[in-house]
Design a protein that fits this description.
About 10% of the residues lie in helices and about 40% in strands. It contains one helix and 15 strands; from the N terminus they run αβββββββββββββββ. The strands form four sheets. Strands 1, 2, 3, 4, 7, 8 and 11 form a seven-stranded antiparallel beta sheet that branches. A three-stranded antiparallel beta sheet has the order 5-13-14, with no helix packed on it. Strands 6-12-15 form a three-stranded antiparallel beta sheet, with no helix packed on it. The two termini are about 30 Å apart. About 25% of the residues are buried.
């Protein structure tokens, strides 16, 4: 369904033109992503210098956990999913996400965040991290019967090339109550 809107010339009233253009986009569903009703939302928290939020949503006929991690200090980066389990020469904690209870993993965790390598001052290591800003982890999951309660467990850390590394977070649990299955 298309909506045709005649916009006045910008010289006439730019505020009206902008309002009409935004209204047309909202009415047609263009210009923004469809918002799905989440199956569960965990309480946001901050730990280890990283702000975190967790949701479970329907996706491609299944479910996925989305965990958003955002370093709270400029210049800090979340470690990569690709970081080995023991870190590099014992330095760094790999980003990990897993589930317990009513949710089971249906595949590996992924992200579309771009990876880069940092060399913290004073250390002779190269650590894979993600670029500045928010990192969204995606974990495909399936629901298992018997309960509507689930936990998402997150491990992560953040470091900076100039300001060192922040305290790692290991298996931080986010409790979820899933809405009834459709």
């Amino acid at each position: 369904m298309g909506i045709a809107t005649r916009l006045p010339a910008l010289g006439a009233n730019p505020c009206v033109s902008l309002t009409l253009a935004v209204s047309a986009l909202l009415l047609t569903g263009c210009g923004h992503e469809q918002n799905t009703d989440p199956a569960a939302v965990g309480a946001p928290f901050s730990d280890g210098g990283v702000a975190v939020s967790v949701t479970v949503e329907s996706h491609d006929g299944g479910l996925r956990v989305l965990a958003e991690l955002r370093p709270e200090r400029d210049g800090f980066h979340v470690y990569s999913l690709a970081l080995p389990d023991g870190g590099v020469d014992g330095i760094g904690i790999p980003t990990r996400i897993r589930t317990e209870g009513a949710l089971r993993s249906a595949g590996p965790a992924t992200t579309d965040a771009r990876e880069r390598v940092v060399r913290p001052d004073g250390l002779d290591v190269r650590l894979p991290v993600y670029e500045d800003g928010r990192v969204t982890l995606q974990l495909p999951v399936r629901r298992v019967g018997g309960t509507d309660r689930a936990k998402v467990l997150l491990s992560y850390g953040a470091c900076s090339e100039r300001d060192g590394c922040l305290a790692p977070v290991r298996d931080r649990a986010v409790a979820l109550t899933l809405r009834p299955a459709d």
